[in-house]
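Q: Got a minute? One more chain.
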Amino acid sequence: MKYGDILILGIVFAPVYLMLIGWFLGRPRSLRLPLLGVGYLAAITVGMWGGLALFAAALGVVFYR
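A: Always. Here it is, folded:
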């Protein structure tokens, strides 16, 4: 594991880890809302990656015909 991996996965994502831990271990304990939050995070992530993939494909079509 390189230093950049440790920096990103350990320090930059620390607030996300703490947020997820707080959602699932915090009080009042409810499973519906944390799962809804995880679903939103997954949807945002998939949307960003999908948008980047479409943008890269469009650039490929425009510049590398």
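A: The CA atoms of residues 52 and 58 lie 10 Å apart.
Q: Perfect, thanks.
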